[in-house]
Amino acid sequence: DGGITQSPKYLFRKEGQNVTLSCEQNLNHDAMYWYRQDPGQGLRLIYYSQIVNDFQKGDIAEGYSVSREKKESFPLTVTSAQKNPTAFYLCASSMGTTFYGYTFGSGTRLTVV
Amino acid sequence: SQQGEEDPQALSIQEGENATMNCSYKTSINNLQWYRQNSGRGLVHLILIRSNEREKHSGRLRVTLDTSKKSSSLLITASRAADTASYFCATDPNRDDKIIFGKGTRLHILP
Q1: Rounded alpha-carbon distances, angstroms, from residue A63 to A45, A75, A109
Q2: Cβ of A62: how many Cβ atoms within 10 Å?
Q3: Strand partners, A24
Q4: Could you tell me if B103 and B86 are in contact, meaning their C-beta atoms sit under 8 angstroms apart?
Q5: What is the pLDDT of residues A11-58, one digit of tens each?
Q6: Are B30 and A98 within 8 A, CB to CB?
């Protein structure tokens, strides 16, 4: 079955620690996206990538980093510079144009302890 | 950058009734999409309506688009308990390469 997989489902981070969230897709989609969702809020775009080895900042990129070395993978690192990282993180992919819908993963809930 | 705004923020209706949610946006668009999110899960794409379309149906879903008023509505007919979720509209602005999500409407279907 084709889909998009996020791991882990739950992640706990200590103060000052970097953590990496995994996102893998087998849909052969060109574009991938990372969103942050806070309780009762909409989605805010962190980073997106239209092709391999290229990515752009979204609306709230500060304190985050990404890489796109393979078409299938778009990991997100939450760095210690992100002062309020507790949130629900969603990864999505699309065929590369905005004339198609996005396919979402099931999310990673990150909590600072 | 917020583009779409859903209204109402929250909606509770009896099972079997129809649910209507609205979305307003600010700039011209290529298309508008609706998504559903169950609690603690990812979003699921429901329906996409292009800027040259006025109405679209998919099962119990009916979406309308009025580009002159920059607004869209999502109607869910004969609601069921399983329809309880948050619903988001997402707009695809012209001259942009990504879609922008609103804050969503939380729909609760009462038994």
Answers
A1: 13, 14, 17
A2: 10
A3: A5, A73
A4: no
A5: 998 988 999 999 999 999 999 999 999 987 889 999 999 999 999 999
A6: yes
